[in-house]
Every structure is written in C-alpha cells, then in structure tokens.
Design goal:
The chain has about 475 residues and is α/β, with parallel strands linked by helices. It contains 15 helices and 16 strands. It folds into three domains: about 15-75, Arc Repressor Mutant, subunit A (Orthogonal Bundle); about 115-125 and about 370-475, Aspartate Aminotransferase, domain 1 (Alpha-Beta Complex); about 135-365, Aspartate Aminotransferase, domain 2 (3-Layer(aba) Sandwich). Helix content is about 40%, strand content about 15%. Helix 7 runs parallel beside helix 8 (about 215-225).
Length: about 475
C-alpha cells in the first residue's frame, strides 16, 4: 500500500517530503507505532533519490517523531497533541438537520462489555454457551471456498438465492409464513428491514401507529422520517386495535411476544388488526423478533400467514436466534411494496456481505440452526421456570410477572411503590444489571416494572442474581 505523498516541482524535495510526513504524523494519518516505508521503497514510489528520503527521515528523527530500530525498521513515535481542525465560519447550511439528528434518542444501545455487570438481565442478547462454533466455522470455510470462485462481483440486492430459499423454508416451517424466495429480502438485521419500510412508506406528516409501550428504536426511526407517531395502548390481548385512527399508513406491532411486556396478541385481536389495516390502507409491520422459542400453549399463526390481502410486512432476524454479531435479518415484503423496498435497499447499501449469507444458507440447510434452536429452547425454558418460580414465591411481595409464552425476556410489574432509579443503582453496585420498563414508554407508565432478559445471564448465576435483587428490594421498600 502506497503512502499518500504529493511532491511538486523540483525545489526543496527533502523539505516537501519532511513537511508532509510531519503533517501526517500530527494529524494521526500516520499512527503511533506504525512502520514507515523503507527509504529505498519510498524513493522508488515517489521518483526521488534515496538520499532525499533519508534526509527527510533524519529531520523527523531529530524532531523525535520517528525512531529507528536496528534490524527491524523505522516507526512513528507517540504523536504530539493533534491540532484541531478549523471550524467553518458561520452556520452550516444543513445545521438544522444535523441538530435534529443529534437530538434523536438512541435507546436500548447496549453498554460496552466493561460497562456490563457480572449478572446481566439485559434484553436482546442470545446465550453464547450452546452456540455450535465448530459447525459455524465449517460453514464459513465452505462459503470462503465458494466465494473464491465468484470473487470480485456484486451480488443481488435482495440477497443470495440459496439463503432466500432457506429463509422462506425456515420461516414457513417455524412460523407459518407464506412466501416464496422471491418475496424475501435479506437485510442487515431487523433494524434495516424496519428502516427500508420506513423509507418507502413514511414521509413528513404521515401517521404511524406504534405500540405503547413498545420498541423505542422503531418509534425513533419512524419519527426521524418525519412521521407523526400515534402511540396505541396495549392490554392483556395486545395492541388495542380500536385506538388506531384512520389515516395511518403504517402500523408497527410485535404480536407474538409484545415488546417489552411479553403478552401474545389474541386471535380475535389479530383478525381485527388485519381488518383495520385493510380498511384504512395501512401496511402492518409484524416484528417477530424472538419467537423461535415457545414454551406453552398451542402455536399461533403469524399475522403474515393469516393475511389474504397483502397488508403485512413480516420482519425476522437471526441475531436473536444465533448471535447479535451475525447481523442478518430478513423482510417478507407484500407485492405492493416489494419493488420499492428493493430500490431503497440498493441505494442504501447495494447488498449484504455475501460471505455470511452463503455461510448462513449452508448452516440452515444442514440442520445446524434447528438443532441450535432446540438446545437454546431447553436452556431458556429452564431459566424462564427459575424466574417464574422466584416471582411466585419469595419475590412475590414485590413483583407481578406479565404472562408470556415465547421469547427470552419477561417483564414483572411492581406491586408496591419503589424508587426504581435507586433500585437499579443499588443492584448495579451488587454487580446485577437490572432494567426498568419505563424507557419503553413514550409517556409515563401506569405501573412501574422491571425488564428481565434471560439470554445473557448464565443459568448457574441466576439464583445468586435473584437473591441480590431480593436484598435490594428489601432495602428500598
């Protein structure tokens, strides 16, 4: 890789080279510890004499900006403080837009590993313990071999055909999604799927209905497109359909495992939602984020599988099933918006990385994903039982669990007034990461509560963590 240096004319060549290298070190383009090009190589690249390069290097050494190590090479020393860039005089033409984006909330951003507690009830993190690393490594290696045959080519925006076929079969088998590979769009996580739907359906002033409480990143995403957000309450049957006003063009919901409270939408309410969307011309965004894991009761149809008029856009993700780092989601788009979604996807990022797509297709086809789901199901079922047992015994004076049948988080409402902020701070001091349900509300919640994700916490640690939660509840009551 060539170092970017521009030499003009034939005057003071060593001085020009010295000045540009010095500026590169001060600006951080040449980082501390980075090896400098050998003088012979740099002289050939720039068409200079080796003595000219050596003279420039000598001046940098005298300034203590570089240091030579015998038999190894020349390296950049720790640079002095970086000179700040000059600010543009006056206000940017787009300053108002920048300020608006700067004020947007980014809730649910996970803390860095060093900011997490030993006992974490954070949501959205799948368990790493049962992940079949060896099978995933073999899938990656096979994908790499295949990639070597097609290297240097862009792929289809909608995703590799093999993966789209695998996703259509998987979603149909596990969730009753009715689709062919031609309706599947591979995305960078579920969040990009929601973003694409927002891009093609939302404009300033458009009405978008979201659950209250609900998934804050979706709410903020729609608002960033200029939508007027209508917060629709939920009850024990899910989203209150009668509260959805006419004029809504998009309805965002989590029917199988309401986020964050956890209840499932009743069959009657699902039918009513489909009927309401058809009547007002709205598209329903069905976010089915973690429903591969079901613990009791009969399976319920997904909204998309019940839809006979093409009003449901189904969003799924492998980040919750496998690992967050995978960052592969998918969208089953209704025919009316499919072409628009593909064009938005193309303009956004052209296509997802094909290596991971190919590896995931292999992983699914060979049955590794289903076996992984079964292993995780057993682990999550055990953790769920532990939580419910404690919530109905020694933690019952404080916590009232919200019934749920799927996923790997649950919410518990507080039975008595508690200073939740103090509760969370004291728990953190005991190395327990607890989370309130309040951030999921746009307004004030009618009852305070706690959100318990049980994917990230090891089963063996759960009893210790809940013992500490009880100690803190006694302290703040």
């Amino acid at each position: 890789m060539e170092l970017h240096i521009v030499i003009e004319g034939r005057k003071d060549l060593a001085g020009q080279l010295y000045q540009q290298l010095r500026d590169a070190i001060h600006s951080g383009r040449l980082a501390a510890g980075e090896q400098m090009p050998p003088s012979r190589l740099l002289s050939e690249q720039l068409g200079l004499s080796r003595k000219t390069v050596s003279d420039a290097y000598s001046r940098l050494s005298l300034d203590k900006l570089i240091v030579g190590q015998v038999g190894i090479g020349t390296f950049v020393r720790t640079p002095p403080a970086t000179k700040p860039r000059e600010q543009i005089a006056g206000e940017l033409a787009g300053a108002a837009v920048v300020r608006r984006w700067s004020t947007i909330e980014t809730p649910l951003r996970h803390p860095a590993p060093e900011g997490q507690s030993r006992y974490e009830f954070i949501g959205g993190n799948a368990s790493k313990v049962p992940f079949p690393t060896e099978e995933w490594r073999r899938s990656i290696n096979r994908a790499l071999r295949h990639e070597s045959e097609t290297r240097g080519r862009y792929a289809l925006t909608e995703g590799l055909l093999d993966l789209r076929k695998a996703v259509a079969a998987f979603a149909g088998f596990t969730r009753g999604v009715r689709s062919s590979e031609n309706e599947v769009v591979i995305t960078n996580g579920a969040q990009q799927a929601i973003d694409l739907l927002s891009r093609v359906l939302v404009e300033p002033g458009a009405l978008v209905a979201v659950e209250e409480p609900g998934y804050p990143p979706a709410r903020e995403l729609f608002a960033s497109q200029g939508a007027e957000i209508v917060n629709i309450p939920v009850d024990e049957q899910g989203m209150v359909v009668d509260a959805i006003p006419a004029g809504c063009r998009l309805i965002y919901t989590t029917p199988a495992h309401q986020f964050p409270l956890g209840m499932a939408m009743s069959q009657q309410r699902r039918q009513a939602l489909l009927k309401r969307a058809l009547a007002i011309g709205a598209i329903i965004v069905e976010d089915d984020y973690d429903c591969a894991f079901r613990y009791e009761g009969r399976p319920t149809d997904c909204l998309q599988g019940m839809d006979t008029h093409g009003v449901v856009a189904y969003v799924g993700t492998f980040s919750k099933i496998m690992l967050p780092e995978v960052r592969v989601g998918y969208l089953v788009a209704p025919p009316a918006i499919l072409e628009a979604v593909l064009k938005a996807k193309y303009l956004t990022d052209c296509h997802n990385a094909t290596l991971v797509q190919r590896a995931l297709a292999i992983f699914i086809k060979e049955g590794h994903l289903q076996r992984h789901i079964r292993r995780c199901h057993a682990i999550y079922a055990s953790r769920r039982e532990n939580l419910l047992r404690r919530f109905t015994s020694d933690l019952a004076p404080w916590l009232d669990p919200v019934p749920f049948t799927a996923g790997f988080h649950m919410s518990a409402l507080l039975r008595q007034p508690v200073d939740v902020d103090l509760l969370l701070r004291l728990a953190r001091r005991l190395d327990v990461g607890l989370y309130s349900v309040e951030p999921f509300y746009h307004g004030r919640p009618s009852r305070s509560g706690l959100f318990f994700g049980f994917g990230a916490i090891d089963t063996i640690d759960m009893e210790t963590a809940l013992d500490r939660v009880k100690d803190v509840l006694i302290q703040v009551s």
